[in-house]
């Protein structure tokens, strides 16, 4: 019965579950065999090959005409969604909701619609004249299906026999051709078109995603470059003591990339220096240092674990300036030293940690005595 494998890579039941196409082929072969039997009837006349050739050619022509008609009637309408919104699925997938940027040429489908309507319309209008037209056609075909020389008594029998056979051949093979191409078009050709369209859609979506990813990467690189440039400029202004201008540029850096850990840390450094300027009221100083501590905590969260030494060290400095307990500040410093031991020397002489210089835990942790003038 039906084959269960369509190709060498996938085993699945074919759309033609009843194997109708194979049965149509068998019927066509049976028809050819009957034509051969009819031609052998005239073996004695020497016209067997001519009659056989005419019969086969008429059958082939009728098969081709029926096949063309079946294709015209069964050709799918590409790009025309079904009632479910896709090509056969019960529920459309999310990707089907978006229009395909490339659509197939539908001219052949439109021509199929026009021809179908014309053929059906003319067939209904000329319904009464169809039998006479078929009779005339079968008469000319029948002349080719009779021997060139026949006896007077059997001439009329052979003429009518050839005419009947010609009509039978045309009708039989036209119907087979129509059924074969109609079923093939609806089951196989349409399925192949849907498969190709789906593959094309997937390729287009993949290329679109690649382009979008590249665009996002380019935009990210551009934003990162702008953020780095603004941050470097702000740090340069910090060294020059121009804190207001530095805050302006670091604001632009954060506007470009609000989650840049380096820029956030630099903002905290600016806030700390603004708080430590002479003449700043104590309440404002505390508020600025608190903001600086918030910035450094956020920077720590955004920085990879193995690169957090600098923001953790700055956190210890801000905690010391805000009056946090010595034990808490030393614990923070210890976390920074574990990631970057060379910060011990920096901490031993850092004025932000001045109140810890006499702390035994601090001295043990840094391994340095406080400066001689303290």
Describe the sheet with the most strands: none
For this structure, the quaternary state is single chain
* Radius of gyration, CA atoms, in whole angstroms: 45 Å
The end-to-end span amounts to 102 Å
List the keywords.
single chain; 374 residues; mainly alpha; Serine Threonine Protein Phosphatase 5, Tetratricopeptide repeat; rod-shaped
Provide a brief overview of the structure.
The protein has 374 residues and is mainly α.
Structure description:
The chain is mainly α. It folds into two domains: 160 residues, no CATH class; 150 residues, Alpha Horseshoe (Serine Threonine Protein Phosphatase 5, Tetratricopeptide repeat). It has twelve helices and no strands. The relative contact order is 0.06.
What's the layout of helices and strands?
Elements: H1 20-40, H2 48-74, H3 107-125, H4 130-144, H5 155-240, H6 243-256, H7 261-275, H8 282-302, H9 309-321, H10 326-339, H11 343-348, H12 360-366
Helix pairs in contact: 1-2, 1-5, 2-5, 4-5, 5-6, 5-7, 6-7, 7-8, 8-9, 9-10
């Amino acid at each position: 019965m039906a084959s269960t494998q369509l190709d060498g890579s996938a085993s699945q039941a074919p759309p033609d579950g009843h194997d109708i196409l194979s049965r149509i082929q068998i019927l066509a072969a049976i028809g050819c065999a009957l034509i051969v039997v009819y031609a052998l009837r005239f073996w004695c006349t020497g016209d067997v090959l001519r009659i056989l050739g005419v019969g086969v050619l008429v059958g082939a022509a009728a098969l081709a005409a029926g096949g063309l008609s079946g294709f015209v009637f069964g050709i799918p309408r590409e790009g025309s969604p079904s009632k479910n919104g896709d090509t056969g699925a019960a529920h459309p997938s999310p990707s089907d909701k978006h229009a395909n940027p490339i659509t197939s040429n539908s001219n052949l489908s439109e021509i199929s619609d026009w021809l179908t309507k014309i053929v059906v319309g003319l067939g209904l209008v000329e319904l009464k004249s169809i039998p006479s037209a078929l009779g005339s056609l079968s008469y000319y075909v029948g002349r080719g299906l009779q021997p060139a020389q026949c006896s007077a008594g059997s001439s009329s029998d052979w003429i009518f026999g050839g005419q009947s056979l010609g009509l039978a051949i045309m009708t039989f093979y036209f119907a087979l051709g129509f059924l074969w191409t109609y079923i093939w078009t609806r089951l196989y050709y349409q399925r192949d078109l849907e498969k190709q369209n789906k593959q094309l859609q997937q390729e287009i979506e993949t290329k679109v995603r690649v382009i979008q990813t590249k665009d996002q990467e380019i935009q990210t690189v551009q934003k990162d470059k702008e953020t780095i440039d603004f941050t470097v400029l702000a740090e340069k202004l910090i060294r020059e003591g121009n804190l207001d201008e530095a805050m302006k540029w670091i604001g632009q850096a954060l506007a470009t990339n609000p989650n840049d850990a380096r820029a956030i840390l630099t903002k905290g450094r600016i806030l700390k220096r603004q708080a430590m300027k002479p003449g700043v009221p104590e309440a404002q100083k505390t508020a600025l240092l608190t903001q600086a501590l918030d910035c450094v905590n956020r920077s720590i969260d955004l920085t990879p674990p193995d690169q957090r030494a600098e923001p953790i060290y700055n956190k210890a400095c801000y905690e010391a300036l805000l009056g946090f307990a010595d034990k808490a500040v030393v614990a923070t410093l210890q976390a920074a030293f574990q990631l970057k031991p060379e910060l011990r020397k920096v901490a031993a002489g850092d004025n932000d940690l001045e109140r810890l210089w006499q702390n035994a835990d601090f001295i043990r942790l840094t391994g340095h005595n406080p400066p001689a003038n303290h």
